[in-house]
Design goal:
- The protein is mainly alpha-helical.
- Among the domains are: 65 residues, no CATH class; 126 residues, no CATH class; 63 residues, no CATH class; 50 residues, no CATH class.
- The chain contains 24 helices and twelve strands.
- Strands 1-2 form a two-stranded antiparallel sheet. Strands 3-4 form a two-stranded antiparallel ribbon. It has a two-stranded parallel sheet with strand order 5-8.
- It starts with 13 loop residues before the first helix and ends in a 51-residue tail after the last helix.
Length: 629
């Protein structure tokens, strides 16, 4: 087959015209006249399907992709022969829609490194490089039917579907092997010989590191997500309201000090989440395990990496900056080197941190209302109404004003027991309320957040004294305003002015042991919101939910880290592949547990832009337009 004619650079010559005719004759040799085929022009790039006349027009006007010399999309190497019942049966390609989805996925994975002629690597007939061979193998597996006459699955699509079922339903490798009746012999080679086991020593510690580069490139492989990656520059309102980290002072300061980085809105700013990150109880040696990440961050900042943008159909050099970290206060000590214990625990107040060491500060049990606390009050000379007295060699101390009687505890538990919240707003708090014991067990951190921010003022109304109710309500309003989706500078200034007054009211009510460094840090939260933007992009709750998901990957309790690493990498790959498998359950858009019907169109972009909600009564819901978000 002569392919040199269609490679002619002169599109108006007779040689090129004859090359187009030869290509069309080859591509339509097993097709009907009205059938459509993938168009190999530089615009369609074998992704869009057209009729014979349309393909001919495209090839004349825009030329064929120069690197497309092996016509895999048009049956050159797709058909294979299998022996079935002693008869050779030609194995046809899979159905067009299935084939189109799989080829689109492969094209997005490979990008333009092989498919386009604008890069250094071209897909040539005699190219035996590793990327080209892998790409060729993927194309052949995508075009090969699972068995003769199968129009549903190709060899590649079946593998993806099987692994997706494995991840969605938490099946072990052994369960999948048993179901499919796969048999394997450990160490056996393809030629029937056996391979001796490696006698390498088993390392005591293994660091499993997933590079950032490929994951950043993958964000731009699909047009929907690539478009969302520049939302902060294209569609964000600039009215002085803090809606996004781009409105924060830290983001603006980075742009001002690095105008070259800020010039391209596709450059990425990252947060480093270090919650639960304590490999092998490393504590202060955690910097050893962060070395690969630091090296890659330095490379992405100074050099960047070449990336294909599917929304703009172009290559660009993506760079990365680390803005801040997300961690609890104890992890802050490991990452920053600041000692978060003792008199100078607050990193912002530093030497101006007000602190007092309690003489009788040892507390036994969970309650902070005991004899030692009252002795501390007497030692400090404050709150004389709570000083203990000794009679007949026994100590007596009065109860504090916020102590609840059994009947009052029952009222609070009864209120919380009847609370109902929208789906996914929080856990079912009524589950954790034990009315018979008048106690609350098992609240997660987010449940405590909801309790303080929304429910606590209602549950204690009319139960505690007015001064206690007012102070707690002010603290609740503070966190409710601070954690809202939109922040205003004047509101943050008011919160910064009011919170010291609120804490002073609390100091008059609660005992000194309540006021550790965590209470002191509340004073600095409005300033942190100004620096970094809305709290919802920086708090720990999504990270904690993700860590819970990672724990479900564990299949071997003796090797939990390896199980988590293997389970995560498999599911990450399948979530990407499932975007191209229409008609099957997806890992990235699984049906909610209270889902009723298709009242909202599916969303394929970044999850933070997905508008979730269910209509009430007979109301209808819809996706918000860009100007409404």
């Amino acid at each position: 087959m002569d392919k040199t004619r269609i490679s002619c650079t002169d599109r108006l010559s007779n040689v090129y015209e004859k090359g187009v005719k030869n290509f069309l004759q080859f591509a339509f040799k097993d097709k009907e006249p009205d059938d459509e085929i993938p168009c190999p022009c530089k615009t369609c790039n074998n992704v869009l399907y057209h009729t014979r006349d349309e393909v001919e027009d495209h090839l004349i006007f825009t030329r064929i992709v120069p690197s497309y010399t092996r016509w895999l999309h048009h049956g050159e190497f797709a058909a294979k022969k299998q022996k079935t019942n002693n008869n050779e049966v030609e194995q046809k390609d899979v159905s067009r829609e299935q084939r189109k989805d799989i080829f689109e996925m492969i094209n997005d994975i490979v990008g333009l490194d092989i498919m386009d002629d604008c890069t250094e690597v071209n897909f040539k007939q005699d190219d035996t490089s590793e990327p080209t061979l892998k790409f060729s193998k993927l194309l052949e597996d995508a075009a090969q039917q699972l068995y003769p006459g199968c129009e549903t699955f190709s060899k590649l699509s079946l593998i993806i579907e099987i692994f997706q079922i494995k991840c969605l339903h938490g099946l072990s490798d052994k369960a999948v092997d048993s179901t499919l009746k796969w048999k394997s012999v450990e160490g056996q080679k393809a030629n029937g010989t056996t391979q001796r086991k490696a006698e390498n020593k088993v390392p005591q510690k293994v660091l499993r590191y997933f590079p950032l580069k490929s994951r950043l490139q993958r964000l731009f492989m699909t047009s929907e997500i690539a478009s969302d990656m520049t939302w902060h520059d294209d569609r964000l309102s600039k009215d002085g309201v803090l809606r996004h980290p781009t409105d924060s002072e830290a983001w603006k300061q980075l742009d001002m000090s690095n105008p070259g980085f800020a010039k391209d809105p596709r450059n990425v700013r990252l947060d480093l989440a270090a919650d639960g990150m304590n490999p092998f109880a490393s504590r202060n040696n955690i910097d050893v395990y962060l070395e690969p990440l630091i090296d890659e961050l330095r490379e992405l900042w100074f050099c960047g990496v070449n990336t294909y943008d599917a929304s703009r159909k172009e290559n660009f050099c993506i760079r990365v900056a680390l803005l801040w970290t997300i961690n609890d206060f104890s992890a802050y000590a490991n990452l920053s080197g600041w000692n978060t214990k003792g008199a100078l625990a607050c990193p912002l107040c530093n030497k101006d941190t007000p602190s007092t060491r309690l003489k009788y500060g040892h507390i036994e049990g969970k309650t902070k209302d005991n004899l030692n606390v009252c002795l501390d009050l007497k030692e400090m000379g404050i709150r004389k109404d709570l000083h203990p007295t000794q009679r007949d060699e026994r100590w007596y101390y009065p109860t504090v004003c916020y102590t609840l009687s059994p009947d009052e505890k029952s009222k609070v538990c009864k209120f919380l027991k009847k609370v109902k919240v929208p789906n996914s707003y929080s856990s079912n708090i009524s589950w954790w309320v034990k009315s018979e014991d008048r106690k609350i067990y098992g609240l997660k951190s987010h449940d405590s957040h909801i309790l303080l921010e929304q429910l606590l003022p209602f549950s204690i109304r009319g139960v505690v004294p007015n001064n206690v109710y007012d102070a707690i309500t002010e603290l609740s309003i503070f966190f409710r305003e601070l954690c809202s989706k939109k922040l205003r500078i004047n509101v943050l200034d008011q919160l910064a002015t009011q919170i010291p007054i609120t804490l002073s009211k609390l100091e008059k009510i609660f005992l000194p042991t309540f006021f550790d460094v965590m209470v002191n840090l509340v004073v600095h939260l409005p300033r942190e919101a100004k620096l970094a933007g809305p709290v919802k992009y920086r708090w720990m709750y999504p990270i904690e939910r993700f860590l819970r998901s990672l724990k479900f990957y564990i299949r071997n309790i003796n090797q939990p880290e390896g199980s988590i690493a293997e389970g995560y990498i498999v599911e990450e790959s399948l979530i990407f592949c499932s975007r191209y498998l229409h008609g099957s359950v997806k890992g990235y858009n699984r049906m909610d547990r209270n889902y009723e019907n298709n009242h909202v169109d599916p969303y394929n972009g970044l999850s933070i832009f997905e508008q979730k909600g269910s209509p009430l009564l007979k109301d209808k819901s819809r996706n918000l337009e860009e100007f409404e978000r």
